[in-house]
Each structure stands twice: as structure tokens, then as C-alpha cells.
Design goal:
alpha/beta; Elongation Factor Tu (Ef-tu), domain 3; oxidoreductase; single chain; 5-stranded parallel sheet; 3 domains; metal-binding; iron-sulfur; Rossmann fold; MRET
Amino acid sequence: MNPASLSVRVERKVQEALDICTFELVDVSGKPLPAFSAGSHVDVQLPGGLTRQYSLCNDPQESHRYLIGVLKDPATRGGSRAMHELVKEGDTLTISAPRNHFPLAHEASHSLLLAGGIGVTPILCMAERLAIAGASFEMHYATRSRERTAFFERIGKSAFAPKVQFHFDDGDAAQKLDLPALLAAPKAGTHLYVCGPKGFMDAVLATARASGWPQEQIHYEYFGAEVTAKADDGSFEVRLASSGKVVRIPKDQTVVQALSKAGVEILTSCEQGVCGTCITRVLEGEPDHRDLYFTPEEQAKNDQFTPCCSRSKSPLLVLDL
């Protein structure tokens, strides 16, 4: 087991809403778990060899457990099905220590939290942290229907319930989430956080940017992506800066796959360009960015990329490997 990994037991598995389960994880030996901050996630090694990222959705002040929420996605690549169908109470899992690519900006004077579906997991953790700190915030939670709304009762019983508005796709028009109105007037000191399905997040981010929100006041985390090949994908070469070795990347293989065949392993996790695990420095060449991790400004620098899904616009990429 990786020294940075943790062995945990599934203490409780609870059906939170239609197709959504929560898993309460505790240290197998009863020790406190490493501290985490709102927005953190852990990598979970699943039966069958898959690894998936799940956001922690319990109070960061708790050290005796981690709580994760998992949607059984009909378009699953196997991860959510394994969690729902194979993982049971009492099972032991190997997870990573918490990592946070989606932290709260503590300088914010007001926080606007937007959650879509299972994207509520990190957003709920943020709301609880902000409430404990007495910070100014509001939360909007959009789901397909009431029966698919995880943590509805938990939020309703919380001290910050008045700060939360629910929006159901199958509800009346008056309660629908009106993004243009909500995001129309960005204010200095107000920070926007969004997590949810790609379509929801794309809509929020496009609306915010069109309304003039500064990039430094927008925070987001994609938790899944459809990695698709393009008809005009071609082959290119990658040179390893340390050895000078050149590896050809065929049009039907990712950089990670081709390098692995050549004996060069890059640590990966999501393989969808959302988690940042495989980020690699680019020393020469122009990447074809296909990730959902970097901001547009970070992508434009072309000094790093995600080899799990991104490719190259130039015939050669020189990588810091």
C-alpha cells in the first residue's frame, strides 16, 4: 500500500436519495483521520482496480470519519456501479489522504455557492464551514426532482437552511434557477463556486464570464467528463527531457497509454482531465488541451497539460519527464 494511502472501513452505507448513496469511512484501527478543508476529495480504490475521486461532504472539524456521496450514473464507466453494487458496510477500502483543488477563498466578503445534482457534496461542506465561521454566503441547489435531492433533510435541519434555495427541474417555473439574473452583477469581494454535471457547470461558467465576473472570483470543480476522440486526431511525438527518448503517440492512444507501453509510467486517477493527478510540465511544443481542470488562462500558457486526455497541436512535445 502506498505510504500516503489510508485503510478505511465502510462504517455506514445509506441511501440518501434516488440513485445516491453516502458512505461513512472510518480508520480501520480507530485512529483519527487526516484533517481536511472544505472542497477536499479523496481517491478511492474500487473493486476491479478502478480509482475514482469523491468529495468529502462532512464537517471538516470531524476527525473520526469521512463522508462521501456517490451517484449511480447510468453512463458510468464502472466506478459508481462498483460503489453502489459491490461495496458494503464492513468492507475495507484503500483511499488517498485528502487533497483540495477546490478551496474556499478566505478573503471573500460573500460566497455564492451553486450545486447541481451530486455536485452538492463539496458545496455542502463549504456551506457548513462558512456557517461555522459566521461568513456571508448563499447556496443554490439544482436537481432534477425532490426525490433525487441528496441531503434535503440535513440541509433543512441546519442552522443555515434560510441561506439555501432548492431548484427542481420538474417544479414550477417560479422556482427554477435563473442564472442570468443571479449572476448579472458581479461584485468585488463576492466569489462564485460551482460543482455539478458538465452541462450545468458550462452554463454557470459561460453566464458568469459573459456577465463580467473576474476569473479570480470564479472557482469550480468538474467531477466527470466525456473524453472523446476527434475525427482529425493525428499522431505526434513526445520527447522525454531527461533521457531524450522519443515516443510516438498514435491517434488512437493517449499520451499516458503510449508512454506506459514504452515503460514510462505517469500517475493517473480520473483519466478524464478533471482531477489534476497526471499534470505534466511542457517544455516545448503546443498542447491540445482537452481537460476540464485548468482555467482558460492556464491553458493558454501551454506550460503544462494533462496527458490522460490532452494531445498535441505541434508535431513534437518535449515533456519534463
